[in-house]
Amino acid sequence: MTENMWVLDDEGIPALPTPPEKIVEVQCNLLGKATNYEIRARIDSYSGSITPYEMREVLHDFEESFRDNRFFDIQEDLGEIGSSVFTFEFYVTSSFIPNYKYRIMFMSYSIGYYPLLVVLDDEIASEISQKDSAGKVYQNAQCVNEQQFIELLRKVIGSKKVRKVIASLRHMSANAS
Asked: pTM for the full model?
């Protein structure tokens, strides 16, 4: 006889928080309603790299591998399985200027949502004082829980840079109609 060893009840397992992209999605909807959908904020899945890298290093590594007739180890290049598998970009755009989007930030997490990696626009990071102990501005923030993310999101959305972009889009949209 085969025994089913899977325990599928949730008793004793902490409830998961709201997915970060759902928190952002609510804010996207609120901006649309507040601007009669002239200005839209979006949160979309993203599949590219979100951390800064220097292209010269990538090209140098590729040229070296090609010259030495080596093969790439795809398992090594893919990285650890299960790390930062869900990635999103958060941006604003206008229905009157559909080819323009201002990327506010990237978000990336693994199973369980937290810790959440947030990669901010440089100007926003500087404005909301995302600085290390030496005073250097850094774009990456790590939120360990939902409350920390909500506080960061509040600062980001309320930043002068985001407000300026939205005001500019509204002005341009008004002049386009």
From this structure: 0.76
